[in-house]
Design a protein that fits this description.
Layout (H helix, E strand, L loop, with lengths): L2 H12 L6 E5 L5 H10 L5 E7 L3 E7 L3 E4 L3 E6 L2 E6 L4 H17 L12 E6 L3 H6 L11 E4 L3 E5 L4 E5 L2 H12 L10 E3 L3 H9 L2 H16 L5 E9 L8 H11 L4 E7 L2 E7 L2 E5 L4 E4 L2 E6 L4 H13 L1 H19 L8 E11 L2 E11 L6 H8 L7 E2 L1 H11 L10 E6 L4 E5 L3 E5 L2 E10 L5 H12 L7 E3 L2
Antiparallel strand pairs: 1-10, 2-3, 2-13, 3-9, 4-5, 4-8, 5-6, 7-8, 7-21, 9-10, 11-25, 12-20, 12-24, 13-14, 14-23, 15-16, 15-22, 16-19, 17-19, 18-19, 21-22, 23-24
């Protein structure tokens, strides 16, 4: 990084106000609903709800402080000012440099009033960042690839307490007033259900024939020796005349799902309500790093006996076992590239995890970062999740560019929460309602190997879409 860029980000970081006001309140009886209600309140232009591990919900809101990176440049905003710099086709490195300037401010003691973990930021990474990291830079496009917000207010809703941190007393009072409102009437009276389940089923089946042809072409590439696996996805647009209610969809969908992480956001041009089945990575302040590949799928319904039959089938299906094993192998390799020698281990292998309307084979690979690497180095190695791309990543990305219908955008990317203390928690964007501008859509994929059939992969995408589609809520006319 050039000296000029370093000075740019130092000037930006000095303009970021600290969360100087902190208060602790009694825990909320329903933190999920409370976080959703805060999101609906419209406190500022951008917000994020992020469900972390252990049933803790974080709500962050603000519009003044942000960082946005694309292939050619990076823009940071704070205190009504704008700073820009070139990225030289290395947007992730430039993005990490900008955020590290906040850490430098912490180290100098100007953030001493904040918690020991440092200042938090929330953001997303678009799937097309993968082309710069692993494949063809020309395929990355010119849209933003990374965006982060440093909030004016952060509310942590846990089982033992509710903690509010704000830049000033005015922000703190706004949130305190909202938290003091009675719980009655918090559900959205302005939203309505998808009319009937048959309509939902028709929607998720749309475009499946074209998807089947894409699967068949991908199987041909695999049998020709071009790659081992590709996760081919299909987009399901929502009707243009209907406008989804993202907070209501999030609340209804989260009640019915069992995700590893969940999120609701209006941030950097994207709106999303999602129930992520796995994390791309989890990095602790102590340098411990973990990733959780899920690959291999069967439906999960209301009949326990049928679910158990499908579980046994999943654990014995050669195609599913092979798909999972190659994903774990590559996750190991990617972890080893940034971790201390001998520290990478598979802590869990081929467990079965329920994730809403499906059950997955799941493993966990952990390690400890080398002293010369940090959370963004790990992110660069592991992103995008192997379970959203394929093996090898480069060949899979090239295959997806040939056979999928346009760029993925947020789908297959990540939503993350990080801190200047070195922590980074990034959820894989799957099982998600996504919107930008006047468009909104769902998307789902399936792991394609040499043993795949178009019929089964179509069925798998429908199984995954049922984790979200039945819970769509729309704004009343």
């Amino acid at each position: 990084m050039s000296t000029g860029s370093r000075n740019t980000w130092e000037a930006w970081a000095r303009s970021v106000p600290p969360l100087a006001c902190e208060s602790t309140r009694e825990p909320c009886p329903d933190p999920m609903a409370t976080a959703t209600r805060l999101a609906r309140a419209g406190l500022a232009g951008q917000y994020v709800v992020y469900e972390a591990d252990g049933g803790v919900w974080h709500f962050a809101v603000g519009s003044d402080v942000s960082v946005t990176a694309h292939t050619g440049g990076i823009t940071a905003r704070a205190a009504g000012r704008t700073w820009t710099s070139r990225t030289d086709a290395r947007p992730l490195a430039a993005f990490a440099d900008a955020l590290s300037a906040l850490r430098d401010e912490d180290d100098e003691g100007s953030r001493a009033e904040e918690n020991a973990g440092g200042r938090h930021f929330y953001g997303w990474a678009a799937f097309e960042l993968a082309h710069l990291l692993h494949a063809d830079p020309a395929s990355a496009g010119d849209r933003p690839l990374l965006h982060a917000m440093v909030p004016s207010v952060e509310v942590t809703l846990g089982a033992d307490s509710t903690v509010v941190r704000a830049v000033d007393e005015a922000w703190a009072r706004k949130v305190a007033d909202l938290l003091a409102e009675p719980a009655a009437g918090q559900s959205s009276a302005s939203a309505r259900d998808v009319p009937v389940r048959e309509g939902t089923e028709g929607m998720i089946a749309a475009g499946s024939a074209a998807y089947g042809r894409a699967v068949a072409r991908t199987v041909g590439d695999i049998r020709a020796g071009l790659l081992e696996k590709a996760v081919v996805s299909r987009k399901v647009p929502l009707p243009a005349e209907r406008h989804p209610d993202f907070p209501a969809t999030y609340l209804a969908g989260r009640r019915a799902n069992t995700p590893a992480r969940s999120y609701l956001l209006d941030l950097g041009g994207y709106r999303a309500a999602g129930f992520s089945p796995e994390t791309v990575l989890e990095v602790g302040d102590d340098g411990r790093v973990s990733t959780q590949p899920l690959a291999g799928t069967r439906a999960l319904g209301a009949d326990p006996a049928e679910n158990e039959r499908r579980r046994a089938e999943l654990l014995s299906d050669p195609k599913e076992i092979h798909e999972h094993a190659v994903s774990v192998r590559l996750a190991w390799d990617e972890m080893a590239a940034v971790c201390s020698p001998g520290s990478v281990v598979v802590e869990e292998y081929m467990a079965v995890r329920p994730r809403g309307s499906v059950q997955h084979l799941a493993s966990r690979v952990t390690g400890r970062l080398r002293p010369d690497t940090g959370p963004w180095d790990a992110f660069a190695s592991l992103f995008p999740a192997i379970t959203a791309t394929g093996v090898s990543k480069r060949a899979a990305l090239q295959t997806l560019a040939r056979h999928e219908d346009g760029p993925r955008g947020l789908y297959g990317g990540a939503v993350f929460r990080g801190s200047t203390g070195g922590a980074l928690d990034a959820a894989l964007v799957l099982r998600t309602l996504i919107g930008t501008g006047d468009e909104a859509w769902l998307r789902a994929g399936a792991g394609v190997t040499a043993q795949s059939s178009p019929e089964r992969e179509i069925e798998e995408t429908c199984e995954k879409l049922r984790s979200v589609a039945p819970y769509l809520r729309f704004c009343a006319d």
